What we know:
By secondary structure, the protein is of the alpha/beta class. It contains 15 helices and 16 strands.
Amino acid sequence: MTEFSFQLLxxxxxxxxxxxxxxxAHGVVQTPxxxxxxxxxxVRTMAHExxxxxxxxxxxxxxxxxxxxxxxxxIREIGGYHKFISWDKPILTDSGGFQVFSLPHQREISEKxxxxxxxxxxxxxxxxxxxxxxxxxxxGSDIMMALDVCVPSTSDYEVAVAAMERTHRxxxxxHAARRRSDNAIFGIVQGAIFExxxxxxxxxxxxxxxxxxxxxxxxxxxxxxxRDHFTKYTAxxxxxxxxxxxxxxxxxxxxxKAVSAGxxxxxxxxxxxxxxxxxxxxxxxKVKLRRTHYAxxxxxxxxxxxxxxxxxxxxAHLHQLTKSEEPSGWRLISFHNTWFYEKLMLxxxxxxxxxxxxxxxxxxxxxxEE
Length: 370
């Protein structure tokens, strides 16, 4: 079995942008990378063949939902998550912490872990650092996340301190619970929007020698300016020889700015979630296909795009499908958006290698502002 490793291949001379790759038991992933979110074992409306056609390198599985259904027993008996969903490329799984902590009236937190009520049958379940690691190892995840305590980024200082300190204690327990050596485990930096806490958290986790580090606790209440600042502030605190993952972010502009700050990995539901709203992304900005003036537009979403949707279908047709809430429209726009995100990551990787990322960033952000 291939053990996880990360290589830094190039750095942009004018920003903190990095070009790298990491190796897993199920393949090599080029960074910066966007990970499509497969909450229930599938990326919404997208078949695996669609993802492969778009160039998707790695998908994300959700521990919380998979823990509840189909559950540990089924996954274990079938032989792991890759086999269960017929996906032979890398998979990252989150710890389930974000979902559990977003249920304030249906969970009880202690130092041992979290007891929460299942939305499926109202039965109480228990998730701890040890349980989260054991389940992710049963899944066969290429990258696991340590269970953390996620609080709103706007939390009071005392709340942020308590969450961060428990996150560190749980991180140690997560490390100690590992039984497999063929996958990686990442620690999650917390600290809300307090610089001194971000510094303390990054240092504490770096001393635990995780395979990689996630910037957690952002995109949960802070302003865009605060998110940009703390992404950049936290990224520079993390070890240079380990991958850096900004969790749950985001829009194309968020991603470009975060790559400039030194982030390597991203995940978000935006490509498929916004597709359902009729929003398509291009290198010239958003196309909001629900708008009336697209009803007679014979052009594709993007005349420069070669994806399935743009090769064959018009904006007028996609407008009709979207307004009619026809699932095939969601699928086509999701395909386009996923294709776009993959091409965006490729363009950034190429720009970093060429030493021209700062020029790419300016041109891209200017196009979106217009």
